[in-house]
From TrEMBL:
Compartment(s): Membrane
Protein name per its UniProtKB record: TMC domain-containing protein
GO cellular component, one term: plasma membrane
Pfam family, one: TMC
Organism this protein belongs to: Spodoptera exigua (Beet armyworm)
UniProt record similarity statement: Belongs to the TMC family.
Predominant cellular place of this UniProt entry's protein: membrane
Molecular function terms from GO: mechanosensitive monoatomic ion channel activity
Membrane-spanning parts: 154-176, 188-208, 220-240, 311-334, 341-361, 373-395, 416-437, 463-489
C-alpha cells in the first residue's frame, strides 16, 4: 500500500460522522489539557488501527506509519503521542516472533540511506543557478526575454563541464609534460591580441600538444593522442545527448500545465510572489496572443504571391550567404597570412550586419512571429557554419609546411576575442548611451531587448567553440568566462537601459528547437 493511498484513506475515513463528532468533542475541550491530547491521540490511533497493513510488525509497515504520521495536520507533540501509542498497539497485536536486532538494524540503515539519497537528489535537481535574477527579468520583460537568459545559463553550464573535462584530461597532462621538458615561450601583449607569436607554440593550440606518450617522474605514462581524441568524442556525445535525446518529445497541455504547475511554491516574500505573478501573467498573455491569432482568409492568388515572395527572399538570403563566403575566401587569399586582424575584423562586421539584414528581410515575408524567428535563426546559423567551414578549408590548404590546425585555432581565438569585446563592451555601451539620451532628452525611444539578435550571437559563439575547441582546447575556458560576464552585463542592460517590448515575442522558453539548432554547430 503506497504512501498516498494510506494518507488519503485516513483523510477520507476521518470524514466519517462518528469520528468527526469525537473530534469536535475533543476540540471543544481545553486542547492544552493532557486528557484532551490523549483523547485526540486515541481517535487518531483508532483510525490508523483500521488498516491491517499499517499495524503489521515489519520495516515496511513501520515506514508507512512514519509517512502517515508525517502527513497528519497535527503538532509535533501530538505526533509523538500518536507514535508512542501506535508502537504499543503494534507490539500487543504482534503474534509472531519479532525480527532479529541485526535484520532490524539492516532495514533501518537501508531506509535511512534511501531517504538521504532522495533528499540529495531533490537538492541537486532543485538547484538552479541565477534563479532569482532570471525570475526578476521574466517578471519585468516576459518569459520570451527570460528564455534568452535560460539559454545563456544552459550554455554556461555546458561549457563549464567542457572546461573541466578538457582541463583535467588534456591541458593538465600537457602542462606537466612541459614542466618536465622545460618547454616555455616568451609572450608579449600583442601576442594576446593576435593569438600568434609566443602563443603559437603553447598550450593554447593543437600543434603544441605531444604526439606520443607523456611520462612523469614515475613509471606511469599518459597517451596524449588518445586522451585528446576520446575527450573530444565524449564532449560531442554528451552534447548530442543533451540536445537531441533529453529534449526529444515536447510539452502538451500547455495551458493546464501553466495553471496547475506554473506557480513557484518556494517563494517566501511578497516581492518574489509579485514577480512570480507578473511572470505568469506575461506568459499567459504570450500564449493567448499566439493561440487566438486567426489566419486571415485570402484568395488563392494572394497565397501564391505570398509563397513566391517567401521563395524569392530565401533565394536572396542564400545568395547573401554564398557571397559572404566567397568574399571571405578572396580576402583570406589576398591578405590573410599577412594581416590576420583585418580578416577577423571584416568577418566580425559581416557576422553583425548579415543577421540584421536577415531580420529586415523576414519582415518582407508572410510568416507568423514564431516561424519568422526560427527562419532568422536558421539563416544566421547557415551563415555562421558557412563562414567557419570556409576558414577551415582555407587554412587546411593554405600552408602545407605549417600546422594548419594551429592556424585555424588562431583564427578561432581572434574571433572569440573580438566577439567578447563587442558583446561585453561595445554593444552594452551603445545601449546604455541610447537609454541615457532618451532619459534626459526624451528623444527617440529607449532600446528594447533584441531577443533574436542576442540569441543569434549566442549560437554563433557556441559554433566557434565547437569547431575551435578541437584546435584550441583552452578556448572553452575563455568562452565560459565570457558567458559568466555576459549574463551580468546583459542583466544590467535589460534592467537599466531597455524597456519591455511593445509587441509580444513568441514564447520559446525551454524549447528544444534552440538546442537542436545549436547542436550541429
Amino acid at each position: 500500500m503506497s504512501r498516498i493511498s494510506e494518507s488519503d484513506t485516513l483523510r477520507l475515513r476521518r470524514n466519517n460522522s462518528e469520528h468527526n463528532a469525537l473530534l469536535e468533542e475533543v476540540d471543544s475541550a481545553d486542547t492544552d489539557a493532557p486528557d484532551a491530547v490523549d483523547k485526540q491521540a486515541d481517535i487518531i490511533v483508532r483510525e490508523m488501527e483500521q488498516h491491517k497493513r499499517l499495524m503489521e510488525d515489519d520495516p515496511g509497515a513501520e515506514e508507512l506509519r512514519r509517512e502517515a504520521l508525517r502527513d497528519l495536520p497535527q503538532g509535533l507533540t501530538m505526533k509523538r503521542n500518536v507514535r508512542a501509542k501506535l508502537s504499543a498497539s503494534v507490539s500487543l497485536r504482534s503474534k509472531r516472533r519479532p525480527i532479529s536486532m541485526w535484520k532490524r538494524m539492516k532495514y533501518r540503515i537501508s531506509f535511512t540511506w534511501k531517504r538521504i539519497r532522495d533528499r540529495c537528489r531533490d537538492v541537486v535537481f532543485s538547484f538552479e543557478f541565477w534563479y532569482e535574477p532570471i525570475r526578476q527579468i521574466e517578471g519585468h520583460f516576459g518569459s520570451a526575454v527570460g528564455s534568452y537568459f535560460y539559454f545563456l545559463r544552459w550554455l554556461f553550464a555546458l561549457n563549464l563541464l567542457l572546461s573541466i573535462l578538457i582541463t583535467a584530461f588534456v591541458i593538465i597532462p600537457q602542462a606537466l609534460h612541459d614542466v618536465e621538458t622545460a618547454n616555455s615561450a616568451k609572450l608579449s601583449f600583442l601576442d594576446f591580441i593576435t593569438g600568434m607569436g609566443g602563443l603559437t607554440d603553447s598550450l593554447m593550440y593543437y600543434g603544441h600538444y605531444h604526439s606520443g606518450e607523456v611520462r612523469a617522474q614515475s613509471s606511469l605514462t599518459y597517451n596524449m593522442p588518445f586522451a585528446y581524441f576520446f575527450t573530444m568524442v565524449c564532449l560531442t556525445a554528451y552534447s548530442y545527448r543533451l540536445n537531441f535525446i533529453e529534449t526529444s518529445g515536447g510539452l502538451s497541455h500547455v495551458f493546464a500545465n501553466k495553471v496547475f504547475c506554473g506557480w513557484d511554491f518556494g517563494v517566501v516574500t511578497p516581492e518574489a510572489a509579485k514577480l512570480n505573478a507578473n511572470s505568469l501573467y506575461n506568459e499567459f498573455k504570450e500564449l493567448l496572443n499566439e493561440q487566438n491569432r486567426k489566419k486571415a482568409s485570402s484568395w488563392w492568388l494572394v497565397r501564391v504571391g505570398q509563397y513566391l515572395c517567401n521563395v524569392a527572399v530565401w533565394v536572396f538570403s542564400a545568395a547573401l550567404v554564398l557571397g559572404a563566403a566567397a568574399a571571405l575566401w578572396a580576402l583570406c587569399a589576398w591578405r590573410g597570412p599577412r594581416c590576420p586582424l583585418l580578416v577577423t575584423a571584416v568577418l566580425a562586421a559581416a557576422l553583425i550586419l548579415c543577421p540584421l539584414m536577415f531580420h529586415v528581410l523576414v519582415k518582407l515575408e508572410f510568416y507568423n512571429p514564431r516561424t519568422a524567428l526560427y527562419v532568422t535563426l536558421a539563416r544566421t546559423w547557415l551563415l555562421d557554419i558557412g563562414i567557419l567551414m570556409v576558414l577551415l578549408v582555407y587554412w587546411s590548404q593554405a600552408h602545407a609546411n605549417q600546422c594548419w590546425e594551429t592556424s585555424f585555432g588562431q583564427e578561432a581565438y581572434r574571433l572569440v576575442l573580438l566577439d567578447s569585446v563587442i558583446s561585453l563592451l561595445v554593444l552594452p555601451l551603445f545601449e546604455f548611451t541610447r537609454g541615457l539620451i532618451y532619459k534626459w532628452s526624451k528623444v527617440g525611444s529607449p532600446p528594447e531587448f533584441n531577443l533574436a539578435y542576442n540569441s543569434l550571437t549566442l549560437m554563433y559563439n557556441q559554433a566557434v567553440v565547437w569547431m575551435g575547441a578541437m584546435f584550441a582546447p583552452p578556448l572553452v575556458l575563455g568562452v565560459t568566462l565570457k558567458l559568466l560576464l555576459l549574463f551580468y552585463v546583459k542583466r544590467e542592460v535589460a534592467r537599466r537601459a531597455c524597456q519591455p517590448a511593445r509587441k509580444l515575442h513568441p514564447q520559446y522558453s525551454n524549447n528544444p528547437d534552440l538546442l537542436m539548432i545549436n547542436q550541429p554547430s
